[in-house]
Amino acid sequence: MDQRQALAAFGALSQETRLHIIRMLVVSGPDGMAAGSIAEKAEVSPSNVSFHLKELERAGLITQQRESRSIIYTANYDALGGLIRFLTEDCCGGNAEICAPAAAVAACCAPATKEELQ
Amino acid sequence: MDQRQALAAFGALSQETRLHIIRMLVVSGPDGMAAGSIAEKAEVSPSNVSFHLKELERAGLITQQRESRSIIYTANYDALGGLIRFLTEDCCGGNAEICAPAAAVAACCAPATKEELQ
DNA sequence: TCAACGATTCAAGGATTATTGAAATATGGA
DNA sequence: TCCATATTTCAATAATCCTTGAATCGTTGA
């Protein structure tokens, strides 16, 4: 994740509807969600959800895949992890104080990393 | 850091000049930088830097403090850590795959956390 | 083939954000 | 007090983003 991608990702996440969509897609996991379901749950019009989905895809945060009549959207875990990484490395450039609490949060939901550290 | 603050922070970081400013302020640490120095280093006009500084302050990512004629801006480490935390917790809501790599990055610049985990 | 479904695209409008330069404010020193 | 410095504020313009509804596209089943 370079700066260009990070800027796009920050922009994508700075809009309420899109942040909502990302949260839903992260929760729904690899199965993803159809555009229509997203629109329904987020309570926005089909064309509006389509606009925001395109924006999120342009930022690399989600991917799409047609499944019969539906188009299924899925969160791009690598991109989201990459964004956290960008923010963390950028902010931690010599300043452990910023990311120490963040590391604690990240560590508690990533047991594999705990083992690596011991 | 609630969603409202996170949205503002993402918006603030989605602009090239502002991301540049944040990076400079994080590096410069608690001493911060005067508005003029920021403008000079970022190669933007005084009034433009003022606009962006106000935006960053509105998002809670920086604080200001007058020092004689200058106004010194400082990165708000808590807010930056809070944003990483928001992103991490939000994305990790049941999905360790996303934040495992992020945790590794965060851990390597926060030795204190390593000890806590052992 | 035709109708229905799920979704996108397009154009228009409104709203927000960014840039610029000129004017204003605050501070410190002669 | 007056001037210079450091910075902000303001108004105007340009650029970008968001929303809406109508039209379009691809897929499936009758």
Task: Please give the structural blueprint.
The structure is a homodimer of 118-residue chains.
Chain A: H1 3-13, H2 16-28, E1 33-34, H3 35-42, H4 46-58, E2 62-67, E3 70-75, H5 77-92, H6 96-107, H7 111-117
Helix pairs in contact in A: 1-4, 2-4, 3-4
Chain A binds a DNA duplex (30 and 30 nucleotides) through helix 3 and helix 4.
Describe the structure.
The structure is a homodimer of 118-residue chains. Chain A has 118 residues and is mainly α. Chain A has seven helices and three strands, in the order ααβααββααα. The first copy, chain A, has a three-stranded antiparallel beta sheet. In chain A, β2 and β3 (70-75) form a beta hairpin. The longest helix of chain A has 16 residues, at 77-92. At the A-B interface, α1, α2, α5, α6 and α7 of A face α1, α2, α5, α6 and α7 of B. The structure holds a DNA duplex (30 and 30 nucleotides).
Condensed summary:
2 copies of one chain form a homodimer. The first copy, chain A, is mainly alpha-helical and 118 residues long. The first copy, chain A, has helices at residues 3-13, 16-28, 35-42, 46-58, 77-92, 96-107, 111-117; strands spanning 33-34, 62-67, 70-75.
